[in-house]
């Protein structure tokens, strides 16, 4: 039978698909992964923005005069420090942040891959009767 020739039959079959315990577990797992993905994505965007800010800061520090101390923010206070020390500190922060961004990117990719696998299984069984897409 071609599903295009009998679209009502296909829809009725999808509507009548029984949700087993395993199916419910897959749906729950997908929901957890989706929540995790959204949280990781928000964190990734914040960290990526901070990483870009540090790139700009590194370029700005290169334009400053070496003789003049600069104000460097640590927590809620500013301290005066030599330009060379500030540059080293920013480079260290940039390195840590870039590592963090790379880790978040890998976590996002792994989470998305798991979600895609679950989508294939769930859409194969439920077709249009289930919606796993973001709105």
From TrEMBL:
Annotated signal sequence range: none
UniProt-recorded name of the protein: Prefoldin subunit 4
UniProt KW keywords: Chaperone
Job description of the protein: Binds specifically to cytosolic chaperonin (c-CPN) and transfers target proteins to it. Binds to nascent polypeptide chain and promotes folding in an environment in which there are many competing pathways for nonnative proteins.
InterPro entries listed in its UniProt record: PFD_beta-like (IPR002777), PFDN4 (IPR016661), Prefoldin (IPR009053)
Subunit details: Heterohexamer of two PFD-alpha type and four PFD-beta type subunits.
Annotated GO MF terms: unfolded protein binding
Source organism, top-level taxon: Eukaryota
Transmembrane segments: none
PANTHER family (UniProt xref): PREFOLDIN SUBUNIT 4 (PTHR21100)
Family statement drawn from the similarity comment of this UniProt entry: Belongs to the prefoldin subunit beta family.
Naturally occurring in which organism (per UniProt): Coemansia biformis
SUPFAM superfamilies noted in UniProt: Prefoldin
BP term (GO), one: protein folding
